């Protein structure tokens, strides 16, 4: 790799494409915040992230400012905030990812995908050498995520099942009642499968029964097993494994029988019916191998989706009971399972998201009224608003609004005193104490009379007294926005 390759041109071109897309988005007037956010995700972010795994390691503060410019324009298109709002606060209000977070996620996703390639793949034979003089982007990517805990990653082939294999018939009724009827009408050998995710463990369980028309099901076998921790496995892979285990235990001497698998996991059944490059490919391959083995004895295998938590299906309840046995406290797997790609990727992305926070000395007002920033709740706050309402809400939540305390701070007003003469026109004074807007404030009182004066409550923020299960009161937020619009105090054009 050329030592002079600094990727500046790559980053400049990506930032230019993102800025162009963001300016086009900004020109679209009267878009709802939901629509603007979707357009940002679909047009602006991909333009800035194209091939970022190659050049993001060379991104410095100067290059980051190029991307932040486009991102800030996109965030303003979503929220309608003033341009003087800090970039970190604006992207938290718009609920969009930072450039660094998106690039880190892309790198982590690529690294985990590389770890799943088969041993015959050229990338599987690559080793991280001790030399650090001229490193390729791929080597820098490997060094960045070397200790991410992917030693037992599953192997995902180009295909799980050859294209000439017959796919397993899947009966998936759209109506719950029709699905229950279809499950009750099957005969011969019935296999009910279930998975359990509890206490940080993932387990599986099932029962095999002999069913004859007009007779009670005769349970032939029950089974359960602990697969591993929630950091390695998930209910989807557990459901696939419990189906594979049931078919694996079917004897070779079975002749001319009909086997029906009952499962409440639509994702697992769809993966079996249409296998692709996905997690759980090992179990899917085993399922098809045993189906082919059983077909040699003229046996037929089909799968039926059944509604979960249905009291009418006793076999499903018993299968769930067996699965829960495998996730009781103290249960341990007999052997370490493979690490599912989807689970490890979800865990890695979640850890990256948890590291995100507002910088020090930035957004002190926003931190005071909303301790949950940055968080997903801001998306719910803005999605209930129309375009003009979103602009008013962003002004109230960022503290940069057309009230005298802020106007005086930026030199646009001679004094910060309110026209009512009762004190400085702060956000609390405007919303709760100004005597000029008593009639307009009635809707806020109806929503939360006892909460009057609580800025966090009426602006959808989390206060210090709120617990872990806190959720914003959207009705209070809507009443606050309507109050601010009714006063006309914030209706002047932006700063």
Automatic annotation (TrEMBL):
MF-aspect GO terms: nucleic acid binding
Family matches, as InterPro entries: RNaseH_sf
Source organism, top-level taxon: Eukaryota
Name this protein carries in UniProt: RNase H type-1 domain-containing protein
Organism field: Fusarium oxysporum f. sp. conglutinans
